[in-house]
Amino acid sequence: MNDLNFIWQIPLALLSFIFNKVMKFIIGNLYTIYLAINKKQASTWRVLSAETLKSPLSLPVLMTKAPRWNNHAIIGTLGPFKVKDSLGVNLEIIKKSAPSWIFVVYSFPGFRTITNLDSNDVQATDEWISIPLKSGSYTLGLRYYHWFDRVTLPTIKVDNIIYTESQLVDAKVNQFYENLLDKKNFFYSALHYYIYILLLYRKYIPESFLKREFLPVGAPDTDFFYGYLRRGQSLLLQIDKPILENYDIFLSLYDHSSLPIMGCEVKESGYGTNPNPNNGYYLLRIRPQPDCQSPLTIEGLIKDELTQQQTIALTLNPHIVQIPNSF
Questions:
Q1: Could you give the CA distance from residue 203 to residue 326 in angstroms, rounded to a whole number?
Q2: pLDDT top residue among 300 and 282
Q3: Which fold does the domain 24-174 belong to in CATH?
Q4: CA–CA gap between residue 33 and residue 66 (Å, rounded)
Q5: Strand 280-288 vs strand 247-255: parallel, antiparallel, or unpaired?
Q6: Is it the case that residue 301 has pLDDT exceeding 90?
Q7: What is the pTM of this model?
Q8: Measured distance CA(48)–CA(145) in Å, rounded
């Protein structure tokens, strides 16, 4: 550990952490009020897109509520709305849009995950599926992976009455990620600086706290592997063949401001990235493929942290172990 770095990094990280929580509280409440008032927006699918980011509040909301951008999926959100006893989802439309997907129900205004449907778990052949819910207010989130040329967000029923009709989505909607890093500024850097420091000093941080601060809400069968990347470092993935054959492996690299630098699907062992242009971090999302019959147990070993290249070896093991970065 470099003592001089430690002296200034830790106080700045603490200030960043406090700033993040204050902004998250303020912006979150403003967004909650906005959704509660704007009934038209609440009853229409909202697709994460370049058009979405034209609203002055959109990017600050996303950077406080969901800063680990998923640039591998088309994302739609809906609500809030009140439910008495059930929610109906048109599964047929979802299945015709993508072979891999996850549908999540959140409480409102707490945004706590209530339940989810996943393409790897739902075997129903019916056109509709009904989700029983307690009386209350909810929002929805839907993520499509490997989407087809025609992408449609589904019709939704609330208490057996149609709440919103299906909505067609441009299959190229995610092109906005290519220029998202251009929106980096001091505000977003200050908002997320502490995350890089948490990952840098990971072996001193409780893993439960790190996961709560860093990880997005994922499907129960999604494995996450993540860590820091210093400026100039590259990442090398060494992946067992059975994992490549049974899992979709998505890699995202982020700037220390948490804006995405790049995202790709890894389809070969020995995949390596270019040297990182700035201090930042990486996130691997590993999801079973739709035809995966027996989910595997994956272990990730991180090594070579002091060199210009970090290596992650993904292998099959009897239990999942994440080896914290050391330095």
A1: 7
A2: 282
A3: Jelly Rolls (2.60.120)
A4: 18
A5: antiparallel
A6: no
A7: 0.86
A8: 14
